[in-house]
Design goal:
Order of helices and strands: EEEHEHEHEHHEHEHEHEHHHHHH
Strand order of the largest sheet: 9-8-7-6-5-4-3-10
Shape: globular
Low-confidence stretches: none
CATH superfamily of the largest domain: NADP-dependent oxidoreductase domain
CATH architecture of the largest domain: Alpha-Beta Barrel
Number of strands: 10
Oligomer: single chain
Number of domains: 2
CATH topology of the largest domain: TIM Barrel
Mean pLDDT: 91
Largest sheet: 8 strands, parallel
Number of helices: 14
Distance between the termini: 60 Å
Structural class: alpha/beta
Helix content: 40-55%
Length: 353
Amino acid sequence: MEVRRLGRTDMQVSRIGFGGMTIPKVSVEQAVATIHRALDRGVNFIDTARVYGNGDSERKIGRVMEDRRGEVYLSSRTPDTSYDGMKKAIEESLEALRTEYIDLYEPHDVSSSERYDPLMRTGGGLKALKEAKEEGKIRHIGFTSHNWDLIKEMIRSGEFEAGLITYNLANREAEGEVLDLAEERDVGLFVMKVFGNASLLELSPPEEDRKPTVEECLRFALSNHRLPLILTGVKSPEEIEQNVAIANSYQPLSAAEQRDLRDFGDRLGRGYCYGCEYCLPCPQDSNIPAILQLIDYQERISWEWPQGRKAYAGFSGTIEDCIDCEQCEERCPQKLPIRERLQKAHDRFAETS
């Protein structure tokens, strides 16, 4: 598989990387088989996080690292951006991954001042990252974020060698200033959510039957020459085979294909839920992503209302229980009008007498 340099980390990474967010959903045996297949097919970058399955993702990856650590770059992260929290998380990641060092470690989802300020203040999480790098426990410092202003701030700071951001055919905000700035500062940006946590593959614009395909999503991301590494969340060896086959055989999009996919992405819109669950927990125990995806799918896939009403009746927390705390909207990476969408779902699906 083609490899590219990831900014000033100088890591030579495969164009397709293994995203570890989904493997907590499968058995240990299937996860291990999937990771082995990825390495066998030339994938040399595995990405995970402390919060994925409450450490389950790291532990499953660690089972493979016992024998194949030298074949792969490892990346992990923690949402605790305090000094003590970062130190503790790095040690926990090293133990779970069964390795003496992690190639790239990041503060997770630095999309608000609540995570940015403890990270960057004197004696904060960044200090812990630098100490770990000096001690050889990590080799490079990165970041992950959905906040474009903070992404630019972290790139400008000079403290980060790489960054994980969102990019897909319906969400292209990275293009322009962010990629220009990263190129200027030699910060290696790599991307997640090329399939929108798989929900993108199930959406179609209003009054259209067309849905994005895996190949369209991957080719679109791969055709951006300024993105050296594309993470894909996978749960089976078959998914690895499909993604690697596309990466190994793809041709850059023609001008006509670029126009078509960009127009298609614009029609899909950005107002849908990726199911990332950053809005949770809700103080009223509302399953916000499930409700949002119910109304998203009904609007774009035209589910029958009886099915929608039946599904909606199974939810315990709805907009009627909302206390307007706004926590979900503050945490949402896509900045969705969550309460408005919850109300729309209620209006559409709630049984009325």
